[in-house]
Write a structure and sequence with these properties.
The complex is a heterodimer of chains A (113) and B (115). Chain A is mainly β. Chain A contains no helices and 12 strands. The chains are: A mainly beta (113), B mainly beta (115).
Chain lengths: 113, 115
């Protein structure tokens, strides 16, 4: 069965710093998607970034980038120049067949002024 | 604006009562999902539906039921058989029509508290 593990329940950094959130996963599939979702205090989950497993190039969206290590089954999220609005729960998710996503336990990130 | 609407946002229930959470989407998505969110456990899949009149159990379906009579709607009933129903419930949808799981679009959630 596919699993997703986020080993950092909470993290806290100062505004403008760079922070990296860790995620490891397990799957027997060779092709799949990986996602990072953000859940701000308002509670609505939104997609931050997506990576397709067959693409070697790491995905980037403005200040957000990933380090995808397929052999190690690792998918970390780097947030550069962190802002107060980045304060949220962050969930790593794995998507393979059957249109289902499996989520990790989440990392609560706090950006301090 | 297109999106997913969940109602009610807050719901209180007495033990032994069934309650139904509403989820409506106007994104024309084929697939819809219900997740349960508990502190420290992330999101766990309750039920999902890839097409109208069809749905499958997720990882924690016991004590829940769903229907998918219309493409736009995927209500979740929390029955009295659910032993620990107090939680935050999230409905989501995706375009569907592909073997590979794609981006999910989420509603704002419904918080159910059993008194």
């Amino acid at each position: 069965a596919q699993t997703v593990t986020q080993s950092q329940p909470e993290m806290s950094v100062q505004e403008a710093e760079t922070v990296t959130l860790s995620c490891t996963y397990d799957t027997s599939e060779s092709n799949y998607y990986l996602f990072w979702y953000k859940q701000p205090p308002s509670r609505q989950m939104i997609l931050v970034i997506r990576q397709e497993a067959y693409k070697q190039q790491n995905a980037t969206e403005n200040r957000f980038s990933v380090n995808f290590q397929k052999a190690a089954k690792s998918f970390s999220l780097k947030i550069s120049d962190s802002q107060l609005g980045d304060t949220a729960m962050y969930f790593c998710a794995l998507g393979e067949g059957a249109q289902k996503l499996v989520f990790g336990q989440g990392t609560r990130l706090t950006i301090n002024p | 604006d297109g999106g997913i609407t969940q109602s009610p946002k807050y719901l209180f229930r007495k033990e032994g009562q069934n309650v139904t959470l509403s989820c409506e989407q106007n994104l024309n998505h084929d697939a819809m999902y219900w997740y349960r969110q508990d502190p420290g456990q992330g999101l766990r899949l309750i039920y999902y539906s890839q097409i109208v009149n069809d749905f499958q159990k997720g990882d924690i379906a016991e004590g829940y039921s769903v229907s998918r009579e219309k493409k736009e709607s995927f209500p979740l009933t929390v029955t009295s058989a659910q032993k620990n129903p107090t939680a935050f419930y999230l409905c989501a949808s995706s375009i569907g029509g592909s073997r590979m799981a794609g981006e999910l679009f989420f509603g704002e959630g419904s918080r159910l508290t059993v008194l």
